[in-house]
Design a protein that fits this description.
216 residues; alpha+beta; Umud Fragment, subunit A; 4 helices; serine-type endopeptidase activity; transmembrane; Peptidase_S26
Length: 216
C-alpha cells in the first residue's frame, strides 16, 4: 500500500511539474513572440493587451481550439459572436470577437468599447482557432507580462531544482534498497557460518566423546 502511495505521489508531482512548466513556457513564448504554444492538442497563449476587456483581462491564459473556417463562418452567420484567434499580416496573433461578415470574410473587433474595428479581416488563410477557455492561473500570466525573462529564468531554475530533488530521492531509495539487500545477504551468510560452526563443534564434541569411551 505504501509503495502504491509513493508511486501515486511521484506521478502527481511529475504531472503538476509538467503543467506548471508548460504554462510558464507557453506564457513566456506568448510574451516574447506573441505566439501560441500547442500542448495536448490545444493552443495556449497569454493576452497582452486590454482590447478584449472586460471579457478577457490582460495576463489571462487563453485556450484555443482549432476549427475550420467554414465552421467559424457559420457561427458568425448564426450570431454566435465567437472569440477567434487569427494571425495578422505582421505575424501577430490577434484575439478578438467576430462581429459580422464582410465580402465572404469575417469582421473582427475587441470587446473593449474603446477598441476600433479591426482593419484586417479573418479569412481561411489566417484563422488560427476559437477561444474555448480562459484562466488567470493564479496571476501567473500577469507576472509573465510584467517580468518576462526573469520569471522564465526563475521557473526554469525551480523546475531544475525540483527535478534534481526527485532524482536524488530516487537514488536514495535505490541505495536504501541495495543496503537492505546487502544486509539481508550478510545476515544470511552470518547465519550460515554460525550454523556450519555449530555443526563442526558438534562433530568435534562427538569425536571427543567417542575417544573417551574407547579409552575407558
Amino acid at each position: 500500500m505504501k509503495k502504491i502511495m509513493k508511486i501515486t505521489t511521484y506521478l502527481l508531482t511529475a504531472f503538476m511539474l509538467v503543467i506548471i512548466f508548460s504554462l510558464v513556457y507557453a506564457g513566456t513564448k506568448a510574451v516574447r513572440n506573441n505566439g501560441i504554444v500547442t500542448l495536448f492538442n490545444r493552443g495556449y497563449s497569454v493576452v497582452m493587451t486590454d482590447s478584449m476587456e472586460p471579457t478577457i483581462q490582460v495576463g489571462e491564459f487563453i485556450i484555443v481550439k482549432t476549427i475550420s473556417y467554414d465552421e467559424a463562418y457559420r457561427m458568425v452567420e448564426n450570431d454566435e459572436d465567437p472569440v477567434l484567434v487569427y494571425k495578422s499580416s505582421r505575424g501577430i496573433h490577434i484575439v478578438h470577437r467576430a462581429i459580422d461578415i464582410s465580402d465572404g470574410s469575417i469582421l473582427m473587433k475587441g470587446d473593449n468599447p474603446k477598441a476600433p474595428v479591426d482593419s484586417e479581416l479573418v479569412t481561411q488563410d489566417n484563422l488560427v482557432g476559437i477561444v474555448i477557455g480562459q484562466t488567470m492561473a493564479f496571476g501567473l500570466g500577469k507576472l509573465l507580462v510584467n517580468s518576462r525573462s526573469l520569471i522564465f529564468l526563475v521557473a526554469i531554475l525551480a523546475f531544475v531544482v525540483l527535478l534534481v530533488m526527485e532524482i536524488s530521492s530516487i537514488f536514495k531509495q535505490v541505495k536504501e534498497r541495495n543496503e537492505l539487500k546487502l544486509n539481508a545477504q550478510f545476515e544470511a551468510e552470518k547465519a550460515r557460518i554460525i550454523s556450519e560452526e555449530k555443526e563442526r563443534l558438534r562433530k568435534e564434541l562427538e569425536e571427543e566423546l567417542k575417544k573417551e569411551d574407547t579409552t575407558d
